[in-house]
Amino acid sequence: MCTGSSLLSRYVSWHFTSMNYENPKPISLLLYALSYRAGSISTLDSLDFARYSDDGNRETDERVAVLEFELRKAKETIQALRANLTQAAENEVPLQERKNYKSSPEIQEPIRPLEKRALNFLVNEFLLKNSYKLTSITFSDENHDQDFELWDDVGLNIPKPPDLLQLYRDFGNHHVAAKDVVDASVGVEDDELEADTPILGTVPVFETQCLIVQKLEDQISVLNSEKWSLMEQIQRLESEIDLLKNENFTVSTVYGVAPHPSLKQVPLTVSEDNGRYLDIKSSENDSKHGNIEETSLALSAEVDSRTSKDDMLNSVPSKETEKLSSCPPSSKAAVHFDKPNRKLSPAFHQALLSFCRMSADSRLGSEVSRIADSEKSVMLMLGRCLPHIVPNVLLAKREELIPLILCTACLHPEPKERDQLLHILFNLIKRPDDEQRQMILTGCVAFARHVGPTRVEAELLPQCWEQINHKYPERRLLVAESCGALAPYLPKEIRSSLVLSMLQQMLTEDKADLVREAVIKSLGIIMGYIDDPDKYQQGFELLLSALGDPSERVVSATHQVFLPAYAAWTTELGNLQFHLIPTLLNKIEKLLREGEHGLDEHKLHMYLSALQSLIPSLFALVLQNAPFTSKAKLQGEIPQIEVTRFPRPVSPLQDVAVIIGSREQLAVLLQLYDHQLEHEGTTGWETLLWVVNQLLPQLIEIVGKINVASTACVHEFSRFFWRLCRTFGKIFTNTKVKPQFQEILRLSEENIDSTAGNGVLTKATVPIYATGVLTCYIQEEDRKLLVGFLEDVMTMLSLSHAPLDSLKASFVELGANPAYHELLLTVLWYGVVHTSALVRCTAARMFELLVKGVHETLVAQRVVPALITLSSDPEISVRIATIPAFGTIMETVTQRELLERVKMQLASFLEDPQYQDQHSLHTEIIKTFGRVGPNAEPRFRDEFVIPHLHKLALVNNQQSVDSKRLDIATHLFESYSALSCCFISEDLMVNHFLPGLKCLRTDMEHLSPEHEVILSSMIKECEQKVENKTVQEPQGSMSIAASLVSEDTKTKFLNKMGQLTTSGAMLANVFQRKK
């Protein structure tokens, strides 16, 4: 403590030497720049860099760069000042007009620009303080040329007046006649002064003024004499005080005892001005203002220093007490100066010293003339100076001031000054980036640790509240992050009330995703410290709001931070099993009941993902409430946990080891958990019994209500069950989960209903059980169980003529993972060689789903041979079922040899006489061509697909059965519509595409006139395109349909094609160009 003042002074001196100025507003910078050119002693030119810098060897080019920067900023300041002076001169009211305003009070003088800006600032400040936020925003927009956050923007070196409310309240106390007073520093015209005061007889005005001046000079002389005598008396008293201090500290050092409080009162009360500062002021203001101010500081410093030193000496160890007592009371000893043996009058001395050019009248001059020599005076000085330093520091370097601001705010004795410093801290940087915010937050936490919860609540939280609606998101982000960082250091009542309300407001009102993300993280921290059970429901509402946020960043932060923290609190309250999880399940059930005609998949994902994030907390609760918990001792050899034992958590807060306490403790509990399940059962294990008897049955019931065609829902529930089974372990899955599913599915041939099939097998229960439960573990017996289950489902669905949607959903979900391709091919081969034609037909249709994701090697080795086998099946239905799979191969495979084999097989279906009358086969081929044609290899499309469509259209003209003819024509129409979006060469267009369309039009003329209108338009446009070769050549591979019609017309055409309920006159306009 005895060297703190000198170290801090050195730091401030270095900082003043090295910092750069950015804000050109203060007029002191102009003086600085002007004195720079004149070689003033205060410029960088005259500084001894070897003395003031840290290393003493600063590079010349660095110095030149600094000086050039200072010169440039000074020139900018001069230009700004000139502009302001010009504007003021232009808006200055002439003298004659001012006289008219004074003589006629009813005529109001026009407002000046400076007055307007000042009043604008005060009005905006009033609106903000009284919650007129929208009005303030409108007012700011209307005055876009003014910065309402910075008073310096109003004018140069103009002090900020009180707010409007204080001006209004104080108005009646200062009613003074306008003509009774004259500013002594302003020249006044003689005719402007009214003769309200009687003049001394007939004495001229000039003589009267001379008499008054002479009288005042005499008074000044007398006061100066008194001042000098008092100063000499003060110096004598100071010398005596210093002697007493030295004797007192000598005694306390010898005996290790602090000085008596009564001895401290004397120096602090008698002379604070010279006891604390080395006064070098010589202006007349010292006797009027300086001593009064410093005497008031002395009174407050007396109490503060006495109590703080007593507390410090009583609380530190004896060794520290000796160190403190050995330190001198002041960093300076008594200073004595030789007095000349002269007989000059004090007035002459004063007049002589007035020729020394010292600036003690200004604010900065006053600070320079008083050198702090104690820790408290340093704090006071920093509190006064920092508000003037901060605006002149470069924005990019202002974080360097954070330690000074925080240290001063912590130790400053005045609450008002501390509030101002913390306000500066939160407004230090206009738009702080991530690193700067981290630095400010670090400082806020250090401040909170130092001052305690009461001052954090009273001083830091108001700063956060003021900026909760700041226009810059970076400032609001700082507020959101501060609420979380300060949570451990706030009173618990404030945590669960004010801070929670602030974060709730920001979550619901803030438009910035980053701010809401920070709010969610801070809410998570708050949930880790809150202990008021009444806030549980509010926390649950906040959780639902966060889960439903439109931003993915916010939802991700909810799962990573907020939800695990809230789950931990819910577990402590005993609400995890009895409120949180049941409520989410009920919301899912309600969604499924209300969504029979349209399920809200977004909300379902929201609730189900929340349940999934709660699985680690639920398993930790099961372990902590197990019968063996008391036996879990960390002794002996601790078993290792397999790396793949648990699913990878999305955040550390969802790691079961973190929730339990340590990985070692978890390992011991897991060993006891597996032993208990395998050998002793679940008797008396209430938490696990709730999972087995209530949670699992409700989940399986919900799964049965899901629409199996909803791929997203099936995937979500599959992932949920997979994570649940992996977390609770293999023994739990085999003994508790699988039996419940198997009981519901009842896979046996006795349950086959030839008319409707086993109802549950057509629901989402099948794919979720297959992909969510049976795939949790990949050992050989697990894979065999999965293969057997899929074979049984395929067999039962086929034999019962039930829909195959559940089996298709299983294949789609499993086919997304290449690890299961071999397994699925094994299942399909079982169907290929099955004795029932129904099962073989199902296997053929399943190949279509599998081909798209399987590697070409497996397609060539396993898929094509199986399809070739099925294509020669005795049952025609089996052969027809292979056509979609062959078409998918043509769409996805690139191997030439493989494509030729498939092409030959399809050609045999089309050209073999035995299939000439197979209406269903032709229908399937046409549908397949329309589906795969646009994406198939161009050569295959040009040489095979389009010519065979032409042939099928010709044959259909000869069809005698109208129903079959219309069926084929409808499918041909869809195929031609799809192929019209492809590039078709001129020869192919003339020889096959146009003739096929004309054949199709012939069918539609008799069977469907609505289709015939569209076909006529297509034929007409195609013919025009063929004729107009010059337009077609530069278009290259642009599709015919795209070149004929705009995208809007094309969309209308496709919509009409699906509906075909509009009149022929309207359909004829589909291909008309937009004008």
From TrEMBL:
Region feature Disordered, mapped onto this chain: 298-332
Gene Ontology CC annotation, any one: trans-Golgi network
Regions annotated as coiled coil: 57-91, 213-247
InterPro entries: ARM-like, ARM-type_fold, HEAT_type_2, LisH, RELCH
Keyword Calcium attributed: no
Key words, A-Z: Coiled coil, Endosome, Golgi apparatus, Lipid transport, Repeat, Transport
Listed Basic and acidic residues bias regions: 303-312
Location(s) in or outside the cell: Golgi apparatus, trans-Golgi network; Recycling endosome
Residue stretches of each HEAT repeat: 863-901
Gene Ontology biological process: intracellular cholesterol transport
Full protein name: LisH domain and HEAT repeat-containing protein KIAA1468
Species assigned in the record: Serinus canaria
